[in-house]
What we know:
Elements: H1 15-28, E1 34-35, H2 47-58, H3 71-85, E2 94-97, H4 100-111, E3 117-122, H5 127-134, E4 138-143, H6 154-160, E5 165-171, H7 183-194, E6 200-204, H8 220-223, E7 231-236, E8 249-252, H9 255-266, H10 274-285, H11 291-309, E9 325-326, H12 347-358, E10 360-361, E11 363-364, E12 374-377, H13 382-397
Parallel strand pairs: 1-10, 3-4, 3-5, 5-6, 6-7
Antiparallel strand pairs: 2-8, 7-8, 9-12, 11-12
Helix pairs in contact: 2-10, 3-10, 4-5, 4-9, 6-7, 11-13
Amino acid sequence: MTFLSATLDRVKPSPTIAVTTKAAELKAAGRDIIALGAGEPDFDTPQNIKDAGIAAINSGKTKYTAVDGIPELKQAICAKFARDNALTYTPAQVTVGTGGKQVLYNAFMATLNKGDEVIIPAPYWVSYPDMVLLAGGTPVTVAASLDTSFKITAAQLEAAITPKTKWFLFNSPSNPTGAGYSWDELKALTDVLLRHPHVWVMTDDMYEHLAYGDFKFCTPAQVEPALYDRTLTVNGVSKAYAMTGWRIGYAAGPEPLIKAMRKVQSQSTSNPCSVSQYAAIEALNGTQDFLAPNNDMFVRRRDLVVDMLNTAQGIVCPRPEGAFYVYPSIADCIGKTTAAGTLIDNDEAFATALLEETGVAVVFGAAFGLSPNFRVSYATSDDALKQACQRIIDFCAKLS
Length: 400
Protein backbone atom coordinates (compact mmCIF):
# COMPACT_ATOMS: atom_id res chain seq x y z
CA MET A 1 0.00 0.00 0.00
CA THR A 2 1.41 3.36 -1.03
CA PHE A 3 1.06 6.43 1.17
CA LEU A 4 0.49 8.92 -1.67
CA SER A 5 -2.79 9.31 -3.52
CA ALA A 6 -3.15 7.39 -6.78
CA THR A 7 -4.61 10.59 -8.26
CA LEU A 8 -1.09 12.02 -8.44
CA ASP A 9 -0.14 9.23 -10.85
CA ARG A 10 -2.41 10.90 -13.41
CA VAL A 11 -0.68 14.29 -13.38
CA LYS A 12 2.79 15.76 -13.77
CA PRO A 13 4.53 18.83 -12.32
CA SER A 14 4.26 22.07 -14.30
CA PRO A 15 6.97 22.06 -17.02
CA THR A 16 7.05 25.86 -17.18
CA ILE A 17 7.79 26.09 -13.46
CA ALA A 18 10.41 23.36 -13.85
CA VAL A 19 12.20 25.29 -16.61
CA THR A 20 12.11 28.52 -14.61
CA THR A 21 13.46 26.74 -11.54
CA LYS A 22 16.25 25.05 -13.51
CA ALA A 23 17.28 28.35 -15.09
CA ALA A 24 17.38 30.03 -11.67
CA GLU A 25 19.53 27.21 -10.27
CA LEU A 26 22.01 27.46 -13.12
CA LYS A 27 22.19 31.23 -12.79
CA ALA A 28 22.80 30.94 -9.04
CA ALA A 29 25.63 28.52 -9.84
CA GLY A 30 27.32 31.19 -11.96
CA ARG A 31 26.11 30.28 -15.45
CA ASP A 32 25.26 33.03 -17.95
CA ILE A 33 21.56 32.24 -18.31
CA ILE A 34 18.86 34.09 -20.25
CA ALA A 35 15.49 32.81 -19.05
CA LEU A 36 12.66 32.99 -21.56
CA GLY A 37 10.42 30.49 -19.84
CA ALA A 38 8.31 32.48 -17.37
CA GLY A 39 4.95 33.92 -18.41
CA GLU A 40 5.39 37.05 -16.35
CA PRO A 41 5.62 40.71 -17.42
CA ASP A 42 8.90 42.38 -16.45
CA PHE A 43 7.02 45.65 -15.77
CA ASP A 44 6.44 46.71 -12.18
CA THR A 45 2.87 46.87 -10.88
CA PRO A 46 1.59 50.40 -11.64
CA GLN A 47 2.06 52.83 -8.76
CA ASN A 48 -1.63 53.61 -8.27
CA ILE A 49 -2.32 49.90 -7.75
CA LYS A 50 0.57 49.52 -5.30
CA ASP A 51 -0.67 52.58 -3.43
CA ALA A 52 -4.11 51.00 -3.09
CA GLY A 53 -2.53 47.92 -1.56
CA ILE A 54 -0.47 50.01 0.84
CA ALA A 55 -3.55 52.00 1.82
CA ALA A 56 -5.41 48.77 2.53
CA ILE A 57 -2.63 47.65 4.86
CA ASN A 58 -2.47 51.00 6.62
CA SER A 59 -6.23 51.07 7.14
CA GLY A 60 -6.26 47.62 8.70
CA LYS A 61 -7.88 45.73 5.85
CA THR A 62 -5.88 42.63 6.71
CA LYS A 63 -8.58 40.33 8.08
CA TYR A 64 -10.52 37.45 6.58
CA THR A 65 -12.97 38.47 3.87
CA ALA A 66 -15.94 36.79 2.23
CA VAL A 67 -14.86 33.43 0.84
CA ASP A 68 -14.78 34.38 -2.84
CA GLY A 69 -14.27 38.13 -2.82
CA ILE A 70 -15.31 41.37 -1.17
CA PRO A 71 -18.46 43.10 -2.48
CA GLU A 72 -16.50 46.13 -3.72
CA LEU A 73 -14.27 43.97 -5.90
CA LYS A 74 -17.22 42.02 -7.28
CA GLN A 75 -18.86 45.32 -8.22
CA ALA A 76 -15.66 46.39 -9.98
CA ILE A 77 -15.60 43.10 -11.87
CA CYS A 78 -19.22 43.54 -12.97
CA ALA A 79 -18.37 47.04 -14.19
CA LYS A 80 -15.34 45.71 -16.07
CA PHE A 81 -17.39 43.05 -17.87
CA ALA A 82 -20.01 45.64 -18.86
CA ARG A 83 -17.41 48.17 -19.99
CA ASP A 84 -15.03 45.91 -21.87
CA ASN A 85 -17.15 42.96 -23.01
CA ALA A 86 -20.79 44.13 -23.11
CA LEU A 87 -21.63 41.39 -20.59
CA THR A 88 -24.05 42.04 -17.73
CA TYR A 89 -23.46 40.20 -14.46
CA THR A 90 -24.54 40.73 -10.86
CA PRO A 91 -22.15 40.31 -7.90
CA ALA A 92 -23.89 37.01 -7.09
CA GLN A 93 -22.63 35.72 -10.46
CA VAL A 94 -18.99 36.58 -9.68
CA THR A 95 -16.27 34.63 -7.90
CA VAL A 96 -12.74 35.72 -6.98
CA GLY A 97 -9.88 33.32 -6.36
CA THR A 98 -6.14 33.26 -5.77
CA GLY A 99 -5.28 33.59 -9.45
CA GLY A 100 -6.99 32.39 -12.58
CA LYS A 101 -5.62 28.89 -12.04
CA GLN A 102 -7.64 28.42 -8.85
CA VAL A 103 -10.79 29.71 -10.51
CA LEU A 104 -10.43 27.19 -13.34
CA TYR A 105 -9.65 24.40 -10.89
CA ASN A 106 -12.65 25.27 -8.70
CA ALA A 107 -14.91 25.06 -11.75
CA PHE A 108 -13.60 21.63 -12.70
CA MET A 109 -13.84 20.34 -9.13
CA ALA A 110 -17.40 21.62 -8.87
CA THR A 111 -18.64 20.06 -12.11
CA LEU A 112 -16.62 17.06 -13.29
CA ASN A 113 -17.53 13.45 -12.65
CA LYS A 114 -15.64 10.36 -13.75
CA GLY A 115 -15.99 9.98 -17.51
CA ASP A 116 -16.80 13.65 -18.18
CA GLU A 117 -14.78 15.04 -21.07
CA VAL A 118 -13.25 18.48 -21.47
CA ILE A 119 -12.25 19.59 -24.98
CA ILE A 120 -8.94 21.46 -24.93
CA PRO A 121 -7.43 22.97 -28.10
CA ALA A 122 -3.71 22.29 -28.43
CA PRO A 123 -1.29 23.94 -28.03
CA TYR A 124 -2.64 24.59 -24.54
CA TRP A 125 -1.47 26.07 -21.26
CA VAL A 126 0.36 23.25 -19.50
CA SER A 127 -1.99 23.11 -16.50
CA TYR A 128 -5.28 22.58 -18.35
CA PRO A 129 -5.16 18.79 -18.86
CA ASP A 130 -3.74 18.09 -15.42
CA MET A 131 -6.40 20.15 -13.67
CA VAL A 132 -9.04 18.15 -15.51
CA LEU A 133 -7.36 14.91 -14.46
CA LEU A 134 -7.08 16.01 -10.82
CA ALA A 135 -10.82 16.75 -10.86
CA GLY A 136 -11.57 13.26 -12.19
CA GLY A 137 -12.38 14.21 -15.77
CA THR A 138 -10.88 13.25 -19.12
CA PRO A 139 -9.05 15.84 -21.23
CA VAL A 140 -9.73 15.57 -24.96
CA THR A 141 -7.17 17.54 -26.94
CA VAL A 142 -7.85 18.93 -30.40
CA ALA A 143 -4.63 19.77 -32.21
CA ALA A 144 -4.34 22.96 -34.20
CA SER A 145 -1.38 23.47 -36.52
CA LEU A 146 0.96 26.04 -37.94
CA ASP A 147 -1.15 25.99 -41.12
CA THR A 148 -4.19 27.30 -39.21
CA SER A 149 -2.12 29.78 -37.15
CA PHE A 150 -2.54 27.49 -34.14
CA LYS A 151 -6.33 27.88 -34.09
CA ILE A 152 -8.78 24.99 -34.28
CA THR A 153 -11.59 24.95 -36.83
CA ALA A 154 -15.32 24.54 -36.35
CA ALA A 155 -15.12 21.14 -38.02
CA GLN A 156 -12.50 19.98 -35.52
CA LEU A 157 -14.62 21.13 -32.59
CA GLU A 158 -17.71 19.40 -34.01
CA ALA A 159 -15.80 16.15 -34.43
CA ALA A 160 -14.51 16.23 -30.84
CA ILE A 161 -17.89 16.62 -29.15
CA THR A 162 -19.42 13.45 -27.71
CA PRO A 163 -22.32 12.75 -25.33
CA LYS A 164 -19.69 12.79 -22.54
CA THR A 165 -18.43 16.30 -23.32
CA LYS A 166 -19.10 18.67 -20.43
CA TRP A 167 -16.82 21.64 -21.16
CA PHE A 168 -15.10 23.34 -24.05
CA LEU A 169 -12.09 25.22 -22.66
CA PHE A 170 -11.20 28.26 -24.74
CA ASN A 171 -8.14 30.57 -24.51
CA SER A 172 -7.53 33.61 -26.72
CA PRO A 173 -5.04 35.22 -27.01
CA SER A 174 -3.32 31.96 -26.35
CA ASN A 175 -0.66 30.76 -24.02
CA PRO A 176 1.64 29.41 -25.52
CA THR A 177 1.18 30.66 -29.10
CA GLY A 178 -0.20 34.19 -28.76
CA ALA A 179 -2.81 33.27 -31.37
CA GLY A 180 -6.04 35.23 -31.18
CA TYR A 181 -9.42 34.24 -32.62
CA SER A 182 -11.21 36.95 -34.60
CA TRP A 183 -14.93 37.58 -34.10
CA ASP A 184 -15.78 35.52 -37.21
CA GLU A 185 -13.47 32.65 -36.20
CA LEU A 186 -15.00 32.54 -32.75
CA LYS A 187 -18.53 32.81 -34.16
CA ALA A 188 -17.87 29.67 -36.21
CA LEU A 189 -17.02 27.84 -32.97
CA THR A 190 -19.99 29.19 -31.05
CA ASP A 191 -22.29 28.13 -33.90
CA VAL A 192 -21.11 24.57 -33.28
CA LEU A 193 -21.71 24.89 -29.55
CA LEU A 194 -25.27 26.09 -30.13
CA ARG A 195 -26.00 22.70 -31.69
CA HIS A 196 -24.81 20.89 -28.54
CA PRO A 197 -26.68 22.29 -25.54
CA HIS A 198 -25.05 19.86 -23.10
CA VAL A 199 -21.61 21.45 -23.65
CA TRP A 200 -20.61 24.36 -21.45
CA VAL A 201 -17.93 26.93 -22.29
CA MET A 202 -15.06 27.91 -20.01
CA THR A 203 -12.98 30.82 -21.23
CA ASP A 204 -9.49 31.86 -20.14
CA ASP A 205 -9.34 35.54 -21.07
CA MET A 206 -6.22 36.35 -19.04
CA TYR A 207 -4.48 37.99 -22.01
CA GLU A 208 -7.50 40.08 -23.08
CA HIS A 209 -5.71 43.43 -22.93
CA LEU A 210 -2.55 42.13 -24.64
CA ALA A 211 -3.92 42.37 -28.19
CA TYR A 212 -1.92 43.94 -30.98
CA GLY A 213 -2.38 45.66 -34.32
CA ASP A 214 -5.74 45.13 -35.98
CA PHE A 215 -6.67 42.21 -33.74
CA LYS A 216 -9.70 42.90 -31.54
CA PHE A 217 -10.32 40.72 -28.51
CA CYS A 218 -13.71 39.06 -28.07
CA THR A 219 -15.05 36.40 -25.73
CA PRO A 220 -17.61 33.62 -26.45
CA ALA A 221 -20.60 34.94 -24.47
CA GLN A 222 -20.08 38.32 -26.12
CA VAL A 223 -19.99 36.83 -29.62
CA GLU A 224 -22.97 34.54 -29.03
CA PRO A 225 -25.31 35.78 -26.27
CA ALA A 226 -27.30 32.54 -26.48
CA LEU A 227 -24.36 30.85 -24.74
CA TYR A 228 -24.46 33.24 -21.76
CA ASP A 229 -26.28 30.79 -19.49
CA ARG A 230 -23.70 28.06 -19.99
CA THR A 231 -20.48 30.08 -20.09
CA LEU A 232 -17.97 30.73 -17.34
CA THR A 233 -15.91 33.77 -18.34
CA VAL A 234 -12.57 33.70 -16.51
CA ASN A 235 -10.10 36.57 -16.27
CA GLY A 236 -7.69 38.19 -13.83
CA VAL A 237 -5.27 41.01 -13.15
CA SER A 238 -2.00 39.08 -13.42
CA LYS A 239 -0.79 39.80 -16.94
CA ALA A 240 -1.98 43.16 -18.26
CA TYR A 241 -1.67 44.80 -14.84
CA ALA A 242 1.69 43.16 -13.99
CA MET A 243 0.21 41.70 -10.81
CA THR A 244 1.31 38.07 -11.05
CA GLY A 245 2.40 37.87 -7.41
CA TRP A 246 -0.77 39.49 -6.07
CA ARG A 247 -2.70 36.34 -7.05
CA ILE A 248 -6.14 37.57 -8.05
CA GLY A 249 -8.26 35.83 -10.68
CA TYR A 250 -11.99 36.04 -11.17
CA ALA A 251 -14.89 34.67 -13.17
CA ALA A 252 -18.54 35.31 -13.88
CA GLY A 253 -21.21 32.84 -14.87
CA PRO A 254 -24.53 31.27 -13.89
CA GLU A 255 -25.26 31.72 -10.21
CA PRO A 256 -25.68 27.98 -9.38
CA LEU A 257 -22.21 27.28 -10.81
CA ILE A 258 -20.69 30.20 -8.89
CA LYS A 259 -22.27 28.90 -5.66
CA ALA A 260 -20.78 25.46 -6.28
CA MET A 261 -17.35 26.95 -6.93
CA ARG A 262 -17.67 29.00 -3.73
CA LYS A 263 -18.31 25.78 -1.81
CA VAL A 264 -15.09 24.26 -3.18
CA GLN A 265 -13.11 27.35 -2.25
CA SER A 266 -14.65 27.51 1.23
CA GLN A 267 -13.14 24.11 2.01
CA SER A 268 -9.77 24.70 0.34
CA THR A 269 -8.11 28.13 0.45
CA SER A 270 -11.02 30.28 1.62
CA ASN A 271 -10.65 33.97 0.72
CA PRO A 272 -7.99 35.49 -1.55
CA CYS A 273 -5.52 37.88 0.07
CA SER A 274 -7.45 40.86 1.44
CA VAL A 275 -4.79 43.40 0.46
CA SER A 276 -4.61 42.04 -3.09
CA GLN A 277 -8.36 42.38 -3.45
CA TYR A 278 -8.25 46.09 -2.67
CA ALA A 279 -5.36 46.54 -5.10
CA ALA A 280 -7.39 44.71 -7.76
CA ILE A 281 -10.26 47.16 -7.31
CA GLU A 282 -7.91 49.98 -8.23
CA ALA A 283 -6.56 47.97 -11.18
CA LEU A 284 -10.04 47.55 -12.63
CA ASN A 285 -11.52 50.93 -11.66
CA GLY A 286 -8.44 53.12 -11.95
CA THR A 287 -6.59 54.56 -14.92
CA GLN A 288 -5.91 52.21 -17.81
CA ASP A 289 -3.48 54.65 -19.45
CA PHE A 290 -0.45 52.38 -19.00
CA LEU A 291 -1.94 49.56 -21.08
CA ALA A 292 -1.29 51.15 -24.49
CA PRO A 293 2.39 52.04 -23.92
CA ASN A 294 3.03 48.63 -22.37
CA ASN A 295 1.46 46.99 -25.43
CA ASP A 296 3.61 49.13 -27.73
CA MET A 297 6.66 47.76 -25.95
CA PHE A 298 5.38 44.19 -26.28
CA VAL A 299 4.75 44.70 -30.00
CA ARG A 300 8.32 45.92 -30.47
CA ARG A 301 9.66 42.91 -28.57
CA ARG A 302 7.41 40.52 -30.48
CA ASP A 303 8.62 41.85 -33.80
CA LEU A 304 12.25 41.73 -32.67
CA VAL A 305 11.95 38.06 -31.67
CA VAL A 306 9.92 36.97 -34.69
CA ASP A 307 12.23 38.71 -37.16
CA MET A 308 15.39 37.31 -35.59
CA LEU A 309 14.14 33.75 -35.12
CA ASN A 310 12.93 33.56 -38.71
CA THR A 311 16.56 33.99 -39.80
CA ALA A 312 17.58 30.89 -37.83
CA GLN A 313 18.16 27.74 -39.87
CA GLY A 314 15.35 25.23 -39.38
CA ILE A 315 13.01 27.59 -37.49
CA VAL A 316 9.67 28.97 -38.64
CA CYS A 317 8.17 31.55 -36.27
CA PRO A 318 4.67 32.96 -36.92
CA ARG A 319 3.79 36.47 -35.75
CA PRO A 320 1.09 36.19 -33.06
CA GLU A 321 -1.85 38.52 -32.42
CA GLY A 322 -1.48 38.86 -28.65
CA ALA A 323 -0.11 37.73 -25.27
CA PHE A 324 3.70 37.80 -24.95
CA TYR A 325 4.75 34.47 -26.43
CA VAL A 326 5.94 33.08 -29.74
CA TYR A 327 5.79 29.38 -30.59
CA PRO A 328 8.35 28.59 -33.30
CA SER A 329 8.38 25.32 -35.22
CA ILE A 330 11.65 23.39 -35.28
CA ALA A 331 10.47 20.64 -37.63
CA ASP A 332 13.54 21.12 -39.83
CA CYS A 333 15.88 20.73 -36.83
CA ILE A 334 14.63 17.28 -35.83
CA GLY A 335 17.12 14.52 -36.55
CA LYS A 336 20.13 16.81 -36.50
CA THR A 337 23.02 16.86 -34.02
CA THR A 338 24.27 19.79 -31.97
CA ALA A 339 27.85 21.06 -31.89
CA ALA A 340 28.29 19.18 -28.59
CA GLY A 341 27.08 15.94 -30.15
CA THR A 342 23.49 15.80 -28.84
CA LEU A 343 20.90 14.29 -31.15
CA ILE A 344 17.82 16.50 -31.53
CA ASP A 345 15.17 13.79 -31.75
CA ASN A 346 12.34 15.89 -30.26
CA ASP A 347 11.65 19.39 -28.99
CA GLU A 348 12.51 18.51 -25.38
CA ALA A 349 15.98 17.48 -26.54
CA PHE A 350 16.24 20.77 -28.45
CA ALA A 351 15.31 22.84 -25.39
CA THR A 352 17.61 20.86 -23.09
CA ALA A 353 20.58 21.19 -25.43
CA LEU A 354 19.86 24.87 -25.99
CA LEU A 355 19.99 25.50 -22.25
CA GLU A 356 23.10 23.41 -21.67
CA GLU A 357 25.06 24.66 -24.66
CA THR A 358 23.96 28.31 -24.89
CA GLY A 359 22.36 29.23 -21.57
CA VAL A 360 19.00 30.11 -23.13
CA ALA A 361 16.01 28.66 -21.27
CA VAL A 362 12.82 28.00 -23.26
CA VAL A 363 9.92 25.58 -22.77
CA PHE A 364 9.65 22.60 -25.13
CA GLY A 365 6.52 22.20 -27.20
CA ALA A 366 5.45 18.76 -25.97
CA ALA A 367 4.62 20.40 -22.62
CA PHE A 368 1.90 22.34 -24.46
CA GLY A 369 0.58 19.39 -26.42
CA LEU A 370 2.00 20.19 -29.87
CA SER A 371 5.43 19.35 -31.26
CA PRO A 372 7.99 20.02 -32.57
CA ASN A 373 8.02 23.56 -31.20
CA PHE A 374 9.22 25.63 -28.30
CA ARG A 375 7.79 28.62 -26.44
CA VAL A 376 9.58 31.89 -25.94
CA SER A 377 8.25 34.48 -23.50
CA TYR A 378 9.30 37.90 -24.72
CA ALA A 379 8.26 39.61 -21.47
CA THR A 380 11.84 40.66 -20.79
CA SER A 381 14.27 43.35 -21.90
CA ASP A 382 15.17 44.06 -25.53
CA ASP A 383 18.85 43.42 -24.80
CA ALA A 384 18.15 40.02 -23.25
CA LEU A 385 15.91 39.08 -26.19
CA LYS A 386 18.53 40.13 -28.75
CA GLN A 387 21.23 38.11 -27.00
CA ALA A 388 18.99 35.09 -26.58
CA CYS A 389 17.82 35.10 -30.20
CA GLN A 390 21.37 35.45 -31.46
CA ARG A 391 22.41 32.47 -29.35
CA ILE A 392 19.51 30.46 -30.81
CA ILE A 393 20.52 31.50 -34.33
CA ASP A 394 24.13 30.45 -33.67
CA PHE A 395 22.99 27.18 -32.07
CA CYS A 396 20.87 26.28 -35.09
CA ALA A 397 23.64 27.23 -37.53
CA LYS A 398 25.87 24.60 -35.94
CA LEU A 399 23.34 21.76 -36.22
CA SER A 400 24.43 19.06 -38.66
